[in-house]
Amino acid sequence: MTTHGWFADTAVRDADAAADAVRNGHADAPENWPAAAVEDGVVDDADEYYDRLRDATRAATRAAVRERERADDQQLVHAVRTIADLSDAANEVAERAVEWARTLFDGVDDGIAGARDVAGRSANSPTEERAIALCERATGLADERDRAQGFVETHAPTVAPNLSMLAGPVLAARLIALAGGLDDLAKLPSGTVQVLGAEDALFAHLRGHAPSPKHGVIYTHEYVRGTHPDQRGSAARALAGKLTIAARVDHYSGDRRPDLEAELDARMERIRARETE
Amino acid sequence: MSLPAGVQRRSFGDEDGVLATRGEPAYGEPVVDGWRRWDAHRSKLGATFELGLDTGLSGGDAVLYLGAANGTTVSHVADFAGPTYAVEFAPRPVTDLLAVADSRERLFPLLKDARAPETYAHVVESGVDAIVQDVATRGQADVALSNRQFLADDGRLVAALKARSEDVTADPAAVFEDLLGRLSDGYEVRATARMEPFHEDHLAVVATPR
Lengths: 277, 210
What we know:
The complex is a heterodimer. By secondary structure, chain A is mainly α. Chain A has helices at 15-24, 33-39, 46-70, 73-102, 111-119, 126-159, 161-167, 169-179, 182-187, 190-195, 199-206, 222-225, 232-252, 258-274. Chain A folds into three domains: 15-70; 72-156, no CATH class; 160-274, Nop domain (Serum Albumin, Chain A, Domain 1). In chain A, helix 4 runs antiparallel to helix 6 (126-159). By secondary structure, chain B is α/β, with parallel strands linked by helices. Chain B has one domain (40-209): Vaccinia Virus protein VP39 (Rossmann fold, 3-Layer(aba) Sandwich), CATH 3.40.50.150. Helices cover 24% and strands 32% of the residues of chain B. In chain B, the strands form two sheets. Chain B has a seven-stranded mixed β-sheet, sandwiched between helices. A four-stranded antiparallel β-sheet of chain B has the order 1-2-4-3. Chain A: Keywords: Methyltransferase, Transferase. Chain A: InterPro entries: Nop_C, Nop_dom, Nop_dom_sf, Prp31.
């Protein structure tokens, strides 16, 4: 049970402490704080209370805004590219490590699971020591990839709340990385967002010897992958349209627009209804 | 219906009877003789006055404003009200809100989530005269109910409910009926009005705590 106002436990005259209390404090229920502050002798009267409150709320809110905006898209871009690099590296090292470990131990599984299994063992020879150490490296790379993924999952919703809401944090971050940043993504036409990540197929098409790609990385979205192939192009186009709007809202206004999700759901329901006709 | 002290109908050019408040201009609105035009098409609270609802707001009221956005409406509220707590969740609009607060002595900007009142109950005083609510999220009735603890027994909830925030596919009338039903858990609804032509698919609501 917390029954203290923002001015309790801090010298209210210490501006930093007061701002911090406004930002990070909480209470189960409000009280008549101006009266309580006067009663506690923290301030002389309500006017002084409101003057202090004004300084504290403005400082707290300014700091909170700055921090939220620093969670910037470029950190997300680095994390997404890190995930891709670490995935490749972890698999490659694990493949080599497991191949080596199999000459020394029985029943080693393929890939990172096999490396993880060997990594815990104790070595009985210099050879085993090397193979086990390599398995530990592969495991460590895979763990770091998972941590980078965790970082993306928690940070993407801060950087791009609406895009993350519609696309999921990982796909949102991949789109931002492919475009080069949230501001770049916000400037792309929907048709380009639709095929981001399918550049090879797109240029093969433009050279004239392939059909146009229907989707790029947005294929990983359930609304594309889970839609019947006949309707997948429509689904990809509709999804890309909403993702484009979401990216623009995130970049230019920062508001939350829960409507977008409901609109996308409604649109997808109509597209998917076609396949049963 | 009567306007709160500090809100007047003024003439702007060839337009008469336009809502206005006195204060520093905040967003490029026209100002005549120190009175700032309050455009009902840009402000849901402004539209609520234009629709003739008795909001029960008075000059000097303590107000908790939920969904302050970039401070367009809040700037007018702070002009006529007393201590005004402005809660907004999105950081970018709050940058504008901070600028609005610079010239208003009793406007307290808070970057907080209106769905989590425990994160600002240590700052916002109890017994406020009015809660003005304009939050475009799902669960608008829950926001009103969970913030009721701030309201004086004789206080007012003045809300703009947005149908599309709850369900884009449903008929707005059905959404409003559902929202009002849930509001009645904690409030007695005194008056409602659809906000067309000022704002589409919005319902203005004035309610008192039960």
